[in-house]
Amino acid sequence: MTKRKTLTTTSGSPYTTNETSRTAGARGPVMLEDHQLIEKLAHQNRERIPERVVHAKGWGLQGTFTVTKDISQYTCAKLFSEVGKETEVLSRWSTVAGESGAADAERDVRGFSLKFYTEDGNWDMVGNNTPIFFIRDGYKFPDFIRTQKRHPKTNLRSPEAMFDFWSAQPESVHQVTILMSDRGIPRSPAHMNGYGSHTFSMWNDKGERHWVKFHFRTHQGHETLSDAKAAEIIGHTRESYQEELWHMIEDGNHPKWTLFIQVMTEEQALETEFNPFDLTKVWPHDDFPLIEVGELEMHTFPENYFQLVENAAYSPNNVVPGIGFSPDKMLQARLFAYADAHRYRLGTHYEALPANAPKNSEVRHYHKDGAMRFFTNDFGNPNAYYEPNQYDGPVADESAEEPPLRIDPEAVVGRFKQEESDVDYVQPRKLYAEVLDDAERDRLHKNMAGGMAPVSEDVKERWLAVLKKVHPDYEAGVRRALETGNHGEPSLPVTDDTPVEAAE
Ligand code: NDP
Ligand code: HEM
């Protein structure tokens, strides 16, 4: 039998025991000099870091992305440079509203985050399992999230707040329809699509820009859970997703997705009936067909969940040359929010943690010092710690700059309200009337009614009026389910939800 290695303190000196405190006599008291004890207790006190303010419950795998089709006419991003090229990927899927201990099988949107460790740095695709979102301006995001989290007095989730907010933001009906459809509770992350959701840009080596949408389509098929099935699963286990992913990887049954892009020229973007940078809208497939790009295969269970999944810092501003942003107002707000959240949640040098450090490109920057600065910026000469310098420190590469973006010369700075119009109802109408079949519509009516059941009459009527603008049958179906009570249990995780009376 090989000799087991010696246990040490964090400073590397051997432990003599890992069982007993150092005491004055067998009955104590404990000596303050017992550094081992103090270290052990102090470390336990620091085992938790703040959970993500949203998307706190998550599941992650490691895998590989392989290019299957040439898209170099759209992008010079090196990860797409040739068919067969492989790039390492770290995924994290999540629910949005629940805390880090929430049950996996809850009705909610799912996050779909991918970190591609490319040779030009990390590209993060921080999307959802829905191609759109509830709101179109980041200014409303904190309000929206507040309605998804707990009421300050009852400390319960509040459908009253959710439907109160949604009915005053009718552009949300597209996303709420998807949330209440069958796809509102995927069986597992393997059984759902992922979408970049926002419009992004790509540019090629000629400096031509195209607008793009990213779609990751599941190979496992869409499998979803009814509210009743989800309740049954949660009764047995809160960790159904983690368990399913674990077994899939253990059995060699690796989940896969095909990446497609939709492409729009800058000229086309001026002509669409809807704003192509509005996150509450999809680009119809007939007008902007899906173009295959490659295959994503997730094949490895991370060795340490905390190190790779909890410490993962995904951010839409992690882009690489050849991929860029768009004017989407939500995306622009996100470009601030994520790195700020990471500095708070993980610390100043979060990018140097193993989950986030580029694996296939070198990091060279002039940021200096700060908490947990455990790495050096040694560019070969200790004098090269500012820029410009005479010591051969790293310099910028102008060729990585994206092409200039032409802005409407008539544009003025202001706060622009987008008035509600039928444009907001066209796409949910198509989803409701043309994509869903009769049985799916029936389940949508019941799921929606279940979610609304605890809500006050006033808010119910406001939301039913929004549904009527989508399609009269939609409103009628949900109203019928509400009136007959034929809708099963409320599908959102709540209990009593009477609005709390204000104090005198
Ligand atoms: P298509 O008929 O070409 O596409 C319909 C899309 O709807 C397919 O991507 C399908 O996904 C998806 N879908 C089916 N059931 C649901 C559901 N319950 N929740 C969410 N998506 C679902 O039509 P259009 O491109 O013109 O889009 C029509 C409507 O479909 C849109 O207004 C939007 O609501 C929805 N949709 C559109 C997408 C797009 O990018 N164009 C993407 C996703 C939804 P799959 O093929 O994987 O089964
Ligand atoms: C996580 C902010 C919209 C997808 C987060 C986090 C913040 C945040 C602060 C926590 C980050 C962390 O601690 O690591 C915002 C803001 C938004 C917005 C301000 C709007 C202005 C969106 C949209 C999507 C999205 C539209 C999807 C299309 C995600 C995902 C995560 C996340 C997937 C989890 C990332 C992970 O797995 O670590 N968001 N978000 N968010 N957000 Fe957003």
UniProtKB/TrEMBL annotation:
Query: In its keyword annotation, does this UniProt entry include Secreted?
Result: no
- UniProt-listed PROSITE patterns: CATALASE_1, CATALASE_3
**Record domain Catalase core: where:** 8-395
User: What keywords tag this UniProt record?
Assistant: Heme, Hydrogen peroxide, Iron, Metal-binding, Oxidoreductase, Peroxidase
GO molecular function list: catalase activity; heme binding; metal ion binding
The EC designation for this entry is 1.11.1.6
Q: Residue ranges of region Disordered? A: 1-27, 478-504
Look up the record and give one Gene Ontology term from the biological process aspect: hydrogen peroxide catabolic process
Name the chemical reaction catalysed here.
2 H2O2 = O2 + 2 H2O
Q: Which residues form the active site?
A: H55, N128
Which Pfam family, an example, fits this chain?
Catalase-rel
Which cofactors are reported in the record for this sequence? Answer: heme
Question: What function is annotated for this protein?
Answer: Decomposes hydrogen peroxide into water and oxygen; serves to protect cells from the toxic effects of hydrogen peroxide.
Instruction: Report the protein name in the record.
Output: catalase
- Lineage, please? Bacteria, Pseudomonadati, Pseudomonadota, Alphaproteobacteria, Rhodobacterales
